[in-house]
Write a structure and sequence with these properties.
about 425 residues, Urease, subunit C, domain 1, TIM Barrel, 8-stranded mixed β-sheet, 4-stranded parallel β-sheet, 13 helices, binds zinc ion
Length: about 425
């Protein structure tokens, strides 16, 4: 008896769609794909009307474990990821303690393994304690299972330190994931600088806070030959800088998040702390540049920056609330609602942006459905409409600005490593 047989679905690859296919899963891998596969399976899933995408891979999330588990933990976070169709998630190192030791990398891997909802790939810190001074031991951390290196929200400010990090990354063939923000000049900014922040009486964060650091790091990446991945690109300027750098042969990839193509800074006028995110929601012009970057391939991948906070932490003024929103469970629907339905992207682009590109950036197996590949499969209904509600949220945290939104496209079943991890 085989494990799972999916009948009559359309398989979506980054390079096209195969209609009317069956998928046979056994022992954690795809044993066979084809028309009308016969023989029994413990579980038969009727795939009629559904699209099978390669399991989604999130390059950027916060699972808050160890140390901040009142917000989220590895079990609730990966359950939420599975509900969003994700079979692989990278988690950022700003936990307590931060992920700067082999022990913490192992803790995350072991706990995720025991939970079994998704493959979790810890991103380790670039500097000890995320303090921006002393580099961590890239080689030892990578051996323990760290997939990449980032100081994320505490980005390295010192030029000598980032240059040393890039030289070490080049030597170790490690990937640096860089959150581009000039902390010194951000000051007390909480929302995108412009008319809406002014209207709401909030201090502004100009685009230059992101763009100046993007330019700096692209320059050092060119100089050193290091492989860098820019986190959550949100501005017109950064999209253009990456576009040019790619033309010039810099080893750079980048991601954006659904909120940067779905929302603009106009939202902050309402004062909802769930619209407070870093980088901030930008102008309509930036949003359009981000969409253009997704369409022309400058932006390689869609990640979530799933950033859970407890209700009591977010239940304060916009200025005082922490940055961040939850993102696993709405990423696919926002992509379908705002970019697929409007004809900006095609089915195969969804497979590329959410699965094939992230896996290739990380240099890991996954990102396609094929014989002997890991059985990571996300079955979706492209026609399903629903109103996203707080009661639906699987994550421990509820900080989403999208409650009440009418969304199109839903994840129906997630299979990770041959196991059903979510069934709507
Ligand atoms: Zn970040």
């Amino acid at each position: 008896m085989k494990d799972i047989l999916i009948k009559n679905c359309d398989i979506v690859h980054a390079d096209g769609v195969q209609a009317g296919m069956d998928i046979l899963v056994h022992g954690g891998v795809v044993e066979k794909t084809g028309k009308r596969i016969t023989g029994g399976a413990s579980r038969v899933i009727d795939g009629e009307g559904l699209y099978a995408f390669p399991g989604f891979c999130d390059l950027h999330s916060h699972l808050r474990d160890p140390g901040l588990t009142h917000k989220e933990d590895i079990v609730t976070g990966t359950k939420s990821a599975a509900a969003g169709g994700f079979t692989t998630v990278c988690c950022m190192p700003n936990t307590n303690p931060p992920v700067d030791s082999v022990e913490t990398v192992r803790y995350i891997l072991d706990k995720a393994d025991a939970a079994g909802f998704a493959r979790v790939l810890p991103v380790a810190a670039i500097t000890k304690g995320l303090k921006g001074g002393v580099l961590t031991d890239f080689a030892a951390l990578a051996r323990a299972g760290a997939i990449a290196f980032s100081d994320d929200g505490m980005p390295v400010q010192d030029d000598d330190v980032i240059l040393a990090a890039m030289r070490l990354a080049k030597k170790e063939n490690a990937l640096l994931m860089l959150h581009e923000e000039d902390l010194k000049n951000r000051g007390s900014g909480v929302a995108n600088a412009g008319q809406y922040a002014e209207q709401a009486g909030l201090s502004g964060i100009p685009n230059a806070i992101e763009d100046s650091m993007t330019a700096r790091d692209l320059y050092y990446a060119q100089k050193t030959g290091a492989r860098i991945h820019l986190c959550h690109v949100s501005t017109e300027g950064s999209v253009e800088l990456v576009r040019r750098a790619k033309k010039n042969g810099v080893h750079v990839t980048c991601e954006t998040m659904p909120h940067y193509f779905s929302l603009t800074d106009e939202c902050v006028v309402g004062g909802d702390p769930n619209t407070k995110v870093n980088p901030p929601l930008r102008s309509a012009r930036d949003r359009d540049a981000v969409i253009a970057g997704i369409v022309d391939g400058t932006i390689d991948a869609i990640a979530t920056d799933h950033a859970p906070h407890s209700e009591s932490e977010k239940n304060t003024s916009f200025a005082d609330a922490p940055f961040g929103l939850i993102g696993f469970e709405t990423a696919f629907s926002l992509l379908v609602t705002n970019l697929y339905r409007t004809g900006r992207i095609e089915l195969r682009d969804i497979a590329r942006l959410l699965a094939a590109a992230p896996c290739s950036i990380l240099g890991i197996a996954g990102g396609r459905i094929g014989e002997n590949e890991r059985a990571d499969i996300t079955l979706c209904d492209m026609e399903k409409k629903y109103t996203y509600q707080k009661n639906d949220v699987v994550s421990k945290a509820k900080n989403s600005p999208f409650f009440g939104s009418e969304l199109l496209g839903a994840v129906m079943v997630t299979i990770a490593g041959g196991k059903v991890t979510y069934d709507r």
